[in-house]
Design a protein that fits this description.
The complex is a heterodimer of chains A (140) and B (153). Chain A is of the alpha+beta class. Chain A has a domain at 8-24 and 85-138. Chain A has 2 helices and 5 strands, in the order ββαββαβ. Chain A has helices at 45-84, 111-123; strands spanning 8-11, 17-23, 87-94, 100-107, 133-138. In chain A, strand 1 (8-11) and strand 2 (17-23) form a beta hairpin. With 153 residues, chain B is an all-alpha fold. Chain B has one domain (4-152). Chain B has helices at residues 4-10, 15-37, 41-59, 78-99, 108-120, 127-152. Classes of the chains: A alpha+beta (140), B mainly alpha (153). Chains A and B meet through strand 4 of A and helix 5 and helix 6 of B.
């Protein structure tokens, strides 16, 4: 069971390629902040130029640094919570033509059987709902 | 005054006993939820409906609720799930006794939901599993309630 190595791979009837990841950890969501409160409009061009570095720093903070700090702060909590729970997440990931992720949640007792059923379903072009698992659909 | 737990066993089959069953099921549901989780809107609604059903049972006529009260949000807490499961176990036990057969085919729909709950029942379930457990328990409780109404009418 690993976060970065697929437990199974399967190709659907239309050539769609799926990687199935099994994990006990739900990674924290990547949440970007709002852009800075700079006003865009007609003004003194020299003033706008002076604001440019602040806008860049603000964008960098909101889009990269703040989400990364949040992710790093919440990751240990997610890992500990996952280790303490008997719940197992199975994510089917397709990267082409666009990245799609579908989620099932099951228990550690039934993970192999559920994984088998999901693989069989995807090979037939279906998103199955195995006994003993909860299908949550597409992850956003 | 005779409680909902006693009245259902004292009346002959018919409209009054069906109302007594409804009062019994609603009281059981509310009591189990209170024991596991304390009060809530659903508990208050269940007690209110149970009181109305007791009135109907004693008078011998009137409207009986179609179902147990439902939650207004999809994901239940662990304690709420414990209360719901205890209630479903209690109602199933009563129905098996009423049918004089613990494996009666009439119980199949209730048992299917209990089996689904058993498969997913773990310590510290995440919201996805709590949502599915709550849904299965709600369906099972509604099935048990409806079966009880049919058996006691």
């Amino acid at each position: 069971m690993g976060l970065f190595r697929p437990a199974r791979t399967v190709t659907g009837p239309h050539g769609d390629y799926w990687e199935l990841y099994v994990s006990k950890t739900a990674l924290p969501a990547w949440r970007e902040g709002k852009p800075g409160g700079f006003e865009y409009g007609v003004g003194d061009p020299r003033g706008d130029l002076l604001e440019l570095p602040f806008m860049l720093v603000g964008a960098l903070w909101g889009m990269v640094i703040a989400p990364l700090l949040r992710f790093v702060a919440l990751l240990p909590v997610s890992v500990v919570r996952g280790r303490r729970s008997r719940a197992v997440r199975i994510e089917a990931v397709s990267a082409f033509p666009q990245r799609e992720v579908f989620l099932w949640t099951t228990t550690d007792d039934g993970v192999d059987r559920v994984l088998d059923e999901i693989v069989t379903g995807l090979a037939a072009g279906k998103f199955v709902q195995p006994e003993g698992a909860v299908y949550s659909g597409r992850e956003w | 005054m005779v409680s909902a737990y006693e009245l259902v066993d004292e009346l002959p089959s018919g409209q009054a006993r069906a109302a007594a069953w409804a009062a019994y099921a609603l009281t059981t549901y509310a009591d189990k939820l209170v024991a596991a989780d304390g009060g809530s809107d659903v508990v208050a609604e269940a007690y209110a409906r149970a009181a109305a059903c007791l009135d109907v049972a004693r008078r011998g006529g009137g409207a009986i609720p179609d179902a147990l009260p439902h939650w207004r949000t999809p994901v239940r807490s662990r304690n709420q799930l414990v209360g719901m499961r205890d209630a479903l176990d209690a109602l199933r036990t009563y129905l098996a006794y009423e049918l004089k057969n613990a494996a009666a085919p009439e119980l199949a729909r209730v048992d299917a939901q209990l089996a689904r709950v058993d498969q997913l029942w773990i310590e510290r379930p995440p919201p996805e599993i709590r949502g599915a457990l709550g849904s299965a328990l709600a369906v099972g409780l509604d099935e048990a309630y409806a079966l009880g109404r049919r058996l006691t009418s």
